[in-house]
Task: inverse folding
C-alpha cells in the first residue's frame, strides 16, 4: 500500500512513502534559515552522508537473527511487528545489513504536544496499550513552554493552549513507556543531574541533534541522528540498524579543522563555521586542546556543548573529534582522519567573516533588547551558578538591585532545585534580580507565534540564533546588556 500524502523532506523533496510510514513525514529541519530563506542544507540528517536516500533506493538487505525474524513475523504481537518492519526498511535505506542490541538508555526528542505530531503520539499510545516499554528508563527533551517562570501571562497561555493541545497525552505516554518525571526533562541528558551518560562505545538510539552530537563526540557513544520517533521505535525493540555513526569507518573525519585564532575562539561561531563547511561530515578539530587542560570537566564542557550544537544546527554534524580532548582522537590520534580529508583553516579573519553573517533579524532592528537567553542546550549546575554569579557581580559593581531586562537560564528543574538547596543566598538574590532558571526549550519559546513582535532577545547560543531571530553576543557583552538594557 502506498500513502497518498507526499513526504516533504529537505533532502529528497516530494516522495511517495510506504503506507506504514505515512505519518513520519516531517523533520525538525526544513532547509530554511531564521530569515526564512533557503540555507542550502542538503544533508540527510542521519549522520550517514547519504544525500537523497529514500526507502525506494534501499541499498542493502538486512540479515535478521531468528529472534528478530520472529518479531517481524508477529510472534510478539502486531505492534512490535510493525515497529520491526519500519526499522528494517529504515536500516536498508541507509545500507545497514544487521541490527545491533542497544545498551545504556535512550534519549527522545519527542517533546512537543502539537497537532502535527498526533500520529506519532497515537502510535506510542498503541504501543503502551499493548504493554511495550523502552528497554531502559529513558530521558526526554525539555517541554516547549514554562507557564510558571516565563510565560505566565494571558497572551502566551492562550498560545500554549492552542499550540500544544496534545502535551498532556505526550507526557503521559512517555511516563507509561519508561521516562522519569518532568523534573528530569532536558536536552543535556548526559549532565550529572540527569545522568544519561552511557559508557564509551555503547550503541544507543538518541534523538536530539545536540545530544547526539555531544554523546558521539564527548562521551564516545554510538548513535545515528534519528528523526523524531525513530528513537522510540528503537527503544521499544532494544535494537537499531548498524550504519553510519555506529561503525568505525563512519566515524572517521573527512575534514581537518585547523583552529589558528590568536585567542580562544568564539565556540558558537566556530561551530557555525564547521556546520556550514562540513554539513554532515565529521570534523577533526585541532588547535584547541589548550583550552581544556587535558580533560572535559563540568566547568569547561559548555565550550564543546555550544560549539557542537552549532555544528548540528548550522549543518547536520552528528559527531566531531577534538584532538587531545575527546576520547577517540585521544586514543587513536590522527588515525581518526579519513583518507583524502580536506582542510579548513579557522583563523581570526574567518571568525570575523562568519560573525559578520549573523544579521540583526529583530522586527525592530533599532529597538532595545527585552530578554537575555542563556543556554541552548540546557545548562548544567556549574554553568547555572556561574551565570547567576556573573549577573549578580555585575549588578553589585553597578550598584543596582535588578537587571534592566530579565535573564533566563535554561536548565532542568532538578538543577534549579539543586541551586536553591546548595546556593540559597545566591539563588534568592538572583531571583529577586530578575534572573530566572527555566526548564523549557529556548528555541521552542523563541519559535512561538508572534515571538519577535513581543520579544527582542539576545543569547549566548549559536544554535538558538540559527533557528530564530535572536541576536548572538559574547558572554561579557550579554552581562552588560542585561544590566543596562542596551546593546
Ligand atoms: Fe535544548 Fe531546545 Fe536548545 S531542546 S538544545 S534548548 S533547541
Result:
Amino acid at each position: 500500500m502506498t500513502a497518498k500524502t507526499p513526504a516533504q523532506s529537505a533532502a529528497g523533496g516530494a516522495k511517495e512513502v510506504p503506507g506504514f510510514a505515512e505519518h513520519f513525514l516531517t523533520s525538525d529541519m526544513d532547509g530554511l534559515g531564521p530569515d526564512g530563506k533557503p540555507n542550502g542544507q542538503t544533508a540527510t540528517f542521519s549522520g550517514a552522508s547519504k544525500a537523497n536516500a529514500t526507502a525506494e533506493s534501499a541499498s542493502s538487505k538486512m540479515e535478521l537473527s531468528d529472534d528478530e525474524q520472529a518479531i517481524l513475523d508477529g510472534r510478539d504481537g502486531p505492534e512490535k511487528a510493525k515497529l520491526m518492519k519500519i526499522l528494517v526498511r529504515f536500516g536498508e535505506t541507509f545500507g545497514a545489513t544487521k541490527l545491533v542490541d542497544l545498551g545504556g538508555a535512550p534519549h527522545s526528542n519527542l517533546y512537543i504536544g502539537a497537532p502535527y505530531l498526533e500520529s506519532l503520539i497515537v502510535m506510542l499510545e498503541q504501543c503502551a496499550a499493548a504493554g511495550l516499554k523502552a528497554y531502559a528508563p529513558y530521558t526526554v527533551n525539555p517541554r516547549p513552554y514554562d507557564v510558571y517562570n516565563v510565560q505566565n501571562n494571558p497572551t502566551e497561555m492562550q498560545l500554549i493552549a492552542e499550540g500544544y493541545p496534545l502535551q498532556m497525552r505526550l507526557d503521559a505516554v512517555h511516563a507509561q513507556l519508561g521516562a522519569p518525571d518532568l523534573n528530569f526533562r532536558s536536552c543535556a541528558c548526559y549532565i550529572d543531574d540527569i545522568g544519561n551518560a552511557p559508557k564509551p562505545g555503547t550503541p544507543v538510539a538518541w534523538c536530539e541533534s545536540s545530544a547526539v552530537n555531544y554523546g558521539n563526540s564527548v562521551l564516545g557513544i554510538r548513535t545515528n541522528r534519528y528523526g523524531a520517533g525513530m528513537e522510540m521505535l528503537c527503544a521499544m525493540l532494544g535494537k537499531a540498524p548498524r550504519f553510519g555513526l555506529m561503525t568505525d569507518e563512519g566515524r572517521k573525519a573527512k575534514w581537518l579543522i585547523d583552529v589558528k585564532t590568536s585567542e580562544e575562539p568564539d565556540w558558537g561561531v566556530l561551530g557555525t563555521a564547521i556546520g556550514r563547511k562540513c554539513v554532515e561530515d565529521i570534523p577533526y578539530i585541532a588547535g584547541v586542546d589548550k583550552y581544556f587542560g587535558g580533560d572535559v570537566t563540568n566547568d569547561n564542557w559548555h565550550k564543546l556543548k555550544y560549539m557542537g550544537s552549532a555544528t548540528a544546527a548550522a549543518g547536520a554534524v552528528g559527531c566531531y573529534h577534538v584532538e587531545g580532548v575527546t576520547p577517540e582522537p585521544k586514543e587513536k590520534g590522527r588515525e581518526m582522519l579519513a583518507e583524502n580529508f580536506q582542510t579548513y583553516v579557522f583563523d581570526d579573519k574567518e571568525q570575523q567573516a562568519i560573525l559578520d553573517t549573523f544579521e540583526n533579524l529583530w522586527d525592530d532592528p533599532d529597538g532595545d533588547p527585552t530578554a537575555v537567553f542563556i543556554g541552548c542546550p540546557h545548562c548544567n549546575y556549574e554553568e547555572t551558578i556561574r551565570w547567576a554569579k556573573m549577573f549578580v557581580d555585575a549588578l553589585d559593581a553597578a550598584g543596582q538591585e535588578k537587571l534592566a531586562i530579565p535573564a533566563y537560564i535554561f536548565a532542568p528543574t532538578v538543577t534549579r532545585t539543586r541551586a536553591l538547596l546548595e546556593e540559597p543566598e545566591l539563588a534568592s538574590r538572583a531571583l529577586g534580580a530578575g534572573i530566572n532558571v527555566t526548564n523549557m526549550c529556548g528555541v521552542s519559546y523563541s519559535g512561538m507565534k508572534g515571538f519577535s513582535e513581543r520579544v527582542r532577545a539576545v543569547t549566548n547560543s549559536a544554535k538558538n540564533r540559527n533557528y530564530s531571530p535572536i541576536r548572538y553576543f559574547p558572554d561579557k557583552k550579554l552581562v552588560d546588556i542585561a544590566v543596562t538594557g542596551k546593546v
Remarks:
- Confidence is low (pLDDT under 50) at residues 1-15, 20-28.
- The two ends are 57 Å apart (CA to CA).
- The pocket of FE3-S4 cluster is lined by residues 141-142, 187, 210, 309, 376-378, 410, 441-443, 463 (CB under 6 Å).
